[in-house]
């Protein structure tokens, strides 16, 4: 954002808490949040005022945008959804794996040391015989 964008964000904030906006205020905020896009900064202002009645600081705004960024990049990719579907078979994901020692809720580890695309057979069989 440029300073004009940052000033616009501050005006959004002032609509909530009636704060005074000076050139110093804009400089202070712009130093902290100037690298953000205006859309993200604006969304963070909105989120803050839905969840808090306190006056927002630039650091808090930055913290909220970190969550927004995390949320957008951590959305499951189709491949991950397919992997998790395999673990739903027989509810295997809910059980400890007797083969690779995966804890309930965690995926199995393949021989390569990476996340296995499907649960160990022992985990599936164990569930079947226990039921
Ligand atoms: Zn396993």
Can you offer a commentary on this structure?
It contains six helices and no strands. The chain has helices at 3-17, 23-33, 38-51, 58-73, 78-88, 121-130. Helix 1 runs parallel beside helix 3. The longest helix has 16 residues, at 58-73. The model has no long low-confidence stretch (mean pLDDT 87). The protein is mostly helical and 131 residues long. It folds into two domains: 3-73; 78-130, no CATH class. Zinc ion binds at residues 97, 99-100, 102, 108, 119-120, 123. Zinc ion binds next to loops.
Task: Briefly summarize what is shown.
The protein has helices at 3-17, 23-33, 38-51, 58-73, 78-88, 121-130. It is mainly α.
Largest sheet: none
For the CA atoms, what is the radius of gyration? 24 Å
Q: Enumerate the distinct ligands.
A: zinc ion
Note poorly predicted spans. Answer: none
Number of helices: 6
| Count of domains | 2
Order of helices and strands: HHHHHH
Protein name: DUF222 domain-containing protein
Helices and strands in order:
Elements: H1 3-17, H2 23-33, H3 38-51, H4 58-73, H5 78-88, H6 121-130
Helix pairs in contact: 1-2, 1-3, 2-4, 3-4
This protein binds zinc ion.
